Amino acid sequence: MGARILIRGGRVIDPASGIDRVADLLLEGGQVGALGEAAGEGAAVAQVIEARGLWVLPGLIDLHCHLREPGHEYKETVLTGTRAAVAGGFTAVACMPNTVPPNDSAPVTRAILRKAAEAGLARVYPIGCITAGQRGERMAEYADLVAAGCRAFSDDGRPVMDAGVMRRALEYSRHFDVALISHCEDLRLAGDGVAHEGAVATRLGLKPIPAAAEEAMVAREVVLARQTGARVHIAHVSTAGSVALVAAAKAEGLAVTAEATPHHFTLTDDALEGYDTAVKVNPPLRPAADRAAVRRGIAEGVIDAIATDHAPHGTVDKELEFDAAANGMIGLETALPLALRLVADGEVSLSRVVEALTWRPARILGVPGGRLAPGDLADVTLVDPEEEWTVEPERLFSRSRNTPFAGWRLRGRVRATIVGGRVVFRDGAVVAVGP
Amino acid sequence: MAWARKDLLGIAGLDPAEIVEVLDTAATMKDISSREIKKVPVLRGKTVVNLFFEASTRTRVSFEIAEKRLSADAVNVSASGSSVSKGETLLDTARNLQAMNPDIIVLRHSCPGTPAMLAARLPAAVVNAGDGAHEHPTQALLDLFTIRERLGRIAGLTVGIFGDIAHSRVARSDVLALRALGARVLVGGPPGMIPPGIVELGAEVAPRLEAMLPAVDVLIMLRIQLERQGGALFPSAREYATHFGLSADRLRLGRPGLLVMHPGPVNRGVEVAPEVADGPQSLILDQVTSGVAVRMAVLYLLSGVHRAPAAEEGRGGA
């Protein structure tokens, strides 16, 4: 439990509570104590953080990242991944189960949580496999996994191609009131493609993935959500067609939610020019029209959450021919400033961006946090909205360096990250390690 | 003009003067191949490594003959006989080769962008000998050379390219090269073989062969890659030959002097009927002959020997 901390004079932005004003915020006993002009008055405060000119946000929550442990510790570990998380302002991350072995059994879940407790930085919410071994054949043991600490289920990267299996999994998941997170990709339509099917892939001779590969699966999940009444969360939405399908599902009142990644709302497939494997991602980067639709989706709340899909890789995975290189880029430390570009461009309100990084992911995962009302978790992110900085991959906290944003000048920097009332990151340094 | 590029990665980015430079140089090189002693000492002391990581006969042999006719020392490496088959990355293989100081690396690879990846990291000149479905610049240059040799020009011609445009690096390079020198280019084939964005490369889409034939001066028929997509894009070789192949009957829909080309190897009786491939309007074997001359020109220009002061003086006004 953290001691009393007074965060003084910052602009508190908490969309879930409808708050956006300059105020003091008192944290006590690991919870939000009071909020107001004189919140800390009379209290014996252990630490005062002057926050004049800073934004005080509910701790950011990433519902889609890869911590790579167990199995690929050379790419990332729970420790290095949560260091990157808190450096990026994330107080909680949900990690995908495509580890080695995959997180389809309670011992793996418990091992991840033990590592997270040892790291003592961000909260870690493991995501369990939808199917055993991510093989797409037989459901994983959800009761066991939920009891061990899993907060959602996904075969991320290995879409459940068998609609019958997905239907049964959705039906069963209702018993636990958890979301199934679907990586929407029809593998037959995608084939061995590596880039969005369009003019850029044609010019560069890259094997194409049609937008339909994603949209056909989103459509299937919407139909199954209607059939089962279960909670379906669509991962990394990247096409205009997918946004429209999610919008229609929501209009119908189905329990369908969606996320988008900073790279899909920042970059277009033009970034493939030069065959930089850092921009090889799945789903692939799309043309400007799709990017615009994703941005509108975030602005209108059709896309609930911004998720990093932080996917660390080593040079042995990326310094390869384009076809052979692994998919994915790191994203925990660049997500917030990239999201703030949407605000600066006037495309998305600040409140919506904060909500998409806090309250909505908390609701989708069914976890506490994402809000700064009294009694909520004392998870707070302090941001200097004016500070400009240059992305230097070698200075990031992730163990991996696979970012295409090297050299980018970004505005908005995390100044402090507080988890459970403890300052774990401040002024460029991780300041607390261990439970 | 003086050739200033380190590498030849594609037609994209070349300006028309550079393309003409290659064609003009190839014209002087072609003569060497018809002499009794088919060898000149232009690249003596230069080392060329031919890295062919994808099956190829004519392109590999064409480069090798071109290298030998210029007196370069040629070394051949294939994927099955290389350390890549032992798990070494291509980049490490290339770095090791670079440590042996080759002057030019000729690379054929199934993955697009791989020549660019090597070119950015190695001081040796890199020649793209075909990278996936991206580009095959020397094929396009030899196609232009062949057309120009026969018709005297490129500008103002209409050239048709028919077949699997989507998977063809030859089609991409041909479209770019022909457009750069002022030709009109029509592309056609069954719907799944016309990729999105081909118009942005400068081509016009004329899907049906029957409609394309009367409009074109030259028709390039592409190889159907039976081994690659099997029946995925069309039901059978028989159906393709019947509905999309260039038969003698269909050829008569074209202008009398219409020239037929094909980058080879030809699936006889599928995309081109045997009597057309071997007929008087076919330039298929001329293309192969041109290939050696064009590759000699490319190697010569990339080797940098022409940049020696004496050589540059001798080329004044060329």
Plain-language structure description:
The complex is a heterodimer of chains A (435) and B (318). Chain A is of the alpha/beta class and 435 residues long. Helices cover 30% and strands 23% of the residues of chain A. In chain A, the strands form three sheets. In chain A, strands 1, 2, 3, 4, 5, 16, 17, 18 and 19 form a nine-stranded mixed beta sheet that branches. An eight-stranded parallel beta sheet of chain A has the order 6-7-8-9-10-13-14-15, sandwiched between helices. In chain A, helix 8 runs parallel beside helix 10. The longest helix of chain A has 18 residues. Chain A is globular. By secondary structure, chain B is an alpha/beta fold. In chain B, 39% of the residues lie in helices and 14% in strands. Chain B has 13 helices and nine strands. Chain B has a five-stranded parallel beta sheet with strand order 7-6-5-8-9, covered by helices on one side. In chain B, strand 1, helix 2 and strand 2 form a beta-alpha-beta unit. Chain B is globular. The C terminus of chain B is likely disordered. Chains A and B meet through helix 6 of A and helix 4 of B.
End-to-end C-alpha gap of chain A: 11 Å
Radius of gyration of chain B, taken over Cα atoms and rounded to an integer in Å: 19 Å
Largest sheet properties of chain A: 9 strands, mixed
Spatial shape of chain B: globular
Specify which chain pair forms the largest interface: A-B, 21 and 26 residues
**Global mean pLDDT of chain A:** 96
